[in-house]
Each structure stands twice: as structure tokens, then as C-alpha cells.
Amino acid sequence: MQTSDIDTEKQPLLGSQSNHHDNDISINNPQTYTTPEISENGSAKPVQTDEFSFRALGRRKKVIFVIIGMVNFSAFTCFSLLAPFFPAEATKKGASTTIVGLIFSCFQFWIFITSPIFGYFLTRIGAKFTFISGIMVCGSCSLLYGILDKCPPNEVFIAMCFLCRTVEALGCSAYLTAAAAIIAREFPHHVTTVFGTLETFTGIGLMVGPPIGGALYEAGGYGLPFWTMGAILLTCGFISFIFMPGQDEGTRVFKGSVLQLIKSPLAVISCLTVFCGSFSLGFLDPTLANHLKVFNLSSLYVGLIFLCAPAVYGLTAPLLGYLSDAKSWTGSMMMIGLFFSGISYIFLGPAPFLPFVPFTLWLTIVMLCFVGLFVGCCLIPTFTGILIGARQLGLDESLDTFGMVSGLFNSSFSLGAFAGPSIGGLLQDNFGFGWAASSCAFLYLASTLVVILFKFTSKQGFNKPPT
Q1: Residues 212 and 293 occupy one common structural domain
Q2: Domain end marker among 251, 268, 290
Q3: Cβ-based neighbour number of residue 142 at 10 Å
Q4: Which pLDDT does position 466 carry in this prediction?
Q5: N or C terminus: which one in the chain shows less Cβ crowding within 10 Å?
Q6: What is the pLDDT of residue 132?
């Protein structure tokens, strides 16, 4: 085995740094050094000094980075492509709007349930095997989705939709949990930078999925979008099987658990922040289109307005990740993101208690762009926040720990993504969009207060413990 292929055997987590070209270190010469940096409360802590550079990475890390980026783009394109045409097709088969909404939302529900489970068993199953298996399951379910229009209507069609969506969610949960754990292990000093950069691929996939799905549907009918993206996902799985380096640490006893991880106040604070971000983004899905009806816009323009938040999020994620890693602004970025996201949702409504704020199209678009920026600001550092919380608990620096952190992160995100559309639609139906958006703002502002109290009352705060 070449030395560039064993650099993960002795990887430290957040506190110390390996040789400048960490991917080229031999296991027989694991040189490390640290340099002091001032933490958020003014204390000194050891951190890495070199900046993340893709060109400086070794072959192993480049392959991992490219594969995960490719899979993120393909998978999230596949997950989002059914939005333009599936609701109408499902209605023809006897599914009500409520049932269609449940078919969509059950995807996030099952990820919420299963992510911690996959995280706990990650090294027992194998990180690479979990990653590839998840991709292959997602691709296979997409192919099956393409023949659901042949099912008998009503109960049989609805049951098969739920079944396919549930199994697809299990595959997605497995691949996402393994991918985040692999990132944490392979890039221990640049977790947030790499995570933020790879989020760009996710955001682009979410943006292009609906137009690609609509175009393929127009060109070849119901099955073509699913068969096309399913084949691409299966191809990604085969490529990952051939080129993805192994990740397993071998069989051993792991003493940690999700229950132990949530004993960390910082981990809980980070999960609350993740929940707020995904809740507010999911809130827009069932509510924003009806809110914009007053402007009499075409479907094309409404679709473009929907792209504002994810586009800004995807474009700014790499920069936000870099700032979090380079400046160690984990807590500060969470607070800034939570506070200004809350302000953005107050003006997005606009809030009924601010009658002087006009309801105009330009203000709505600007606020959606701010939502994309500031939700990214609070979401991007949270994975590192949970990692630091695990370190503060004394959990060992291993793929097991990374798997648990990844599972908790994905579970928190999916809980918000599941609750956001459900509660958002309910609030809009009963109180109107202004109060519904204000509820998101209140959630953000209350969470800001919680993070501020934690920052100034906790002894450890957001600080990385010494190694």
C-alpha cells in the first residue's frame, strides 16, 4: 500500500495538525505540530495553520472529494426531479393532495429515524459499503418509481408510492451518514470547508432537478425522468465501488452512543440550529407559491423565485465553510445566522405587527436571498459544532464517533425538513402567511437567545478541547 493511501490511519481530529501534505505522511513518521490561535473566549488553542487547497490534496483525498460531490449532485437531482409532474400524476391515480404531501414528507421522516442507527453501526457495516449500498438502493428505487404509473389506482398505487419512498429514504440515510463521516475522517482540519463546498453540489442538484424532471417528462412521459436519473445513480455507485478508497478501522468495541452524544450541551445547541434551518427552508415549499399568487406570476417566474434561497445558499456555502474553519467562528456564525434569518422571515411575511412594511415582489425576492445567505451561515458550522461537542465529552477520534456525529446531524436536519412543510401549511391555512413566517422568525430569535446564553455561561463553550 502506498503511503498516500494510509493517511487516515493516524488522523487527529480538531486539535493538532499533521505535516503540510497530510495525505503523504507515512504511518511510520506521523509528524505533527500545533500553532496557537485565540478562541472565541480569548484562550489559546492549537489549530492548523495551512489553508484548504484542492490542488494540494493527495490522490486519495481528491478521489473522495470528487466522488462525494458527484453523488451529491446526482442524488439530489434525483430526489427533487418529481416535483413538477408527480403531484398531477398521483392525482390521476386517486391520491389526494394530503396524501401526496405525506408521500413527500415520509422521505424526511425515515431519514430522521434511521440516520442515528446507521451512524451507530457504521464501522460494523463498513463506511464504504454503507455509502455504496445507499447509492445503489436510491438508484434502484428511482427505476421502480418509473413504473408506478402502471399500478392500479387508489390504494395499490398509494401503497407502492409509500413503499418506494420509504426504501429510497433508507438508502439516502445510509449514503448521507457514511459520506459525512468519511468527510470528517479524511479532512479533520477542514471539515466545515469541505462540507460547505460539497453543499454546493447538493444545492445545484436541488435547483436543476425540477427543470430536468419537467423536461424529461415532456420528452418521454412519466418514466423517463426516473429511469434516466436512476441509471446515473447506479453508475455513480459502480464508480464509487471501483475508485472509493476503503474506510474501515477494523472490528472493535465502541463505547459511545447517540444518547451519550446528546449529553453535550454544544451538540444539542448545534442540533437545535440545524433543526431551525431545515424547518424554515421546508416551510417555504407548501406556502410560498400561494403567497405569490397576488402578483399573478407565471409558473416559470414562481419557479425562479423558489430558486433564490437555495441558489444563494449553494453559492455562499464554500465561503462560509472556509470562514468557519479558518477563523474558528463556529459559535459566532451560528448566532449571526440565527438572528438575521429571523429578521429575514419577519420581513418576508411581512409580519402583521409591522404594518408599515410593504408587501412587494422585490422585497420578497431580496428577503429570500437573505434567507439563503443567513440560513447557510447558521447551518454550515453546525457539523463542526457537534464534532467539538463530541470531543468535549472525551469520545475517541474514530470513524465510530464520526458516524454518530453524522447520524445525529442528518437526523436533526430531516426532523426539521419533515416538520417545516407540515406545520408551515397548517399555520398558513389558519393564520395566513404573515403569521406563519413570523413563527419561523420567533423560532430563530428564541434559538439565538439560547445560543447566546450558552456561549456566555458555559465553561467550555465552542472551544475545542486540547489534544
Answers
A1: no
A2: 251
A3: 27
A4: 63
A5: N
A6: 94
Mean pLDDT to the nearest integer, 279-307: 81
The answer to whether 337 and 374 have CB atoms below 8 angstroms apart is yes
* Residue of 358, 65, 14 whose CA lies nearest to 190: 14
Give 46's strand partners: 36
Structural domain contains residue 19:
no
47's enclosing H/E stretch is strand 44-47
The string of pLDDT tens digits covering residues 399-422 is: 778 888 888 888 999 999 888 888
In 3D space, the residue among 308, 306, 317, 312 whose CA is nearest the CA of residue 200 turns out to be 317
Alpha-carbon distance of 306 to 329, in angstroms, equals 30
Q: Is residue 224 part of a domain?
A: yes
Q: In whole angstroms, what is the distance from residue 249 CA to residue 233 CA?
A: 27
Q: How far apart are CA 136 and CA 119, in angstroms?
A: 18
Total domains, the chain: 2
CA 238 vs CA 63, 156, 172, 362: distances in Å: 14, 32, 16, 46
- Is the per-residue pLDDT at 438 higher than 70? yes
- Note whether 176 and 111 are within 8 A (CB): yes
Q: What CATH number should be reported for the domain holding residue 393?
A: 1.20.1250.20
> pLDDT tens digit string along 9-61?
334 333 333 333 333 333 233 333 333 444 444 444 444 444 666 677 788 88
Cell readout for 399 is 470513524
Considering only residues 215 and 273, tell me which one the structure prediction assigns the higher pLDDT: 273
Whether residues 136 and 247 fall in one domain: yes
- Whether residues 304 and 225 share a domain: the answer is no
Domain that holds residue 456: 253-467
- Assess whether 233 and 335 both reside in one domain: no
